[in-house]
Amino acid sequence: MPPLILPLILLVIAVQAVPDERPPSIALQRGLGYLLAMPSTPRLPSSHPPLLVILHGTNSSPEEALKVWAPAGLEAGFLLLCPAPSGEDWSLQEDVPRILSLVHLTLEKYRVNPVRVHLTGFSSGATLACILGLSEPNLFGSMVLASGHFDGISAADSRHEARISIYIVHGRQDEVFPAARARAYAESLKTQGYSVDYLEIPGLGHQYLPHDATRILLRWFLNHPRVPDTYHNRRP
What we know:
α1 (about 60-75) crosses α5. The protein has a single domain, classed as Alpha/Beta hydrolase fold, catalytic domain (Rossmann fold, 3-Layer(aba) Sandwich), CATH 3.40.50. It has helices at about 60-75, 90-110, 125-135, 180-190, 210-220; strands at about 10, 35-40, 50-55, 80-85, 115-120, 140-145, 165-170, 195-200. Strands 1-2-4-3-5-6-7-8 form an 8-stranded mixed beta sheet, sandwiched between helices. It is of the alpha/beta class.
């Protein structure tokens, strides 16, 4: 079956924009929409930019997710890809193939650095990002999971090594998905060999990350590119 090719809806935001200014709204076609933001000019003309795929939470939107990451992400030279779900919320069956097709299309069209493809999500978006990141270690180098629900997501898979780097961030006052569950999941990933950082933010409930946190996490992404696949290259 040929890969799904989706039309690009391009949002160009100048790096010099006011940091807290909301990006212009773009009408999205349900099931085919996403936002792609990029710096007005590359940091280095000859460089291959990093890509951050951002999955928003329930009752949110690509515009809201982009508002959180765009100011610092564009300053750091990232392309920011914000897909929209095919329905009211994320679907494994429908949205995972779409997201992967979008990522590969963006990689090819914008000459993204293939070892600097990163992933983040908030709430239900973090849940889907976790599933995607653990199942696609040959695509994503690292992922940040914010205020997610991880019950029932197993990292045990003999086909993959524990190569993707993971940062779990949770609000200590989150009443939707208690922080204790995220903390326990982080520990379970560590026991399976994953490199996991964990942070609880005091005073933060079930809400998007503050801008000072995203700046720190963008630096973390740049320090955690994808590592080579040594599992499939082993000699018998």
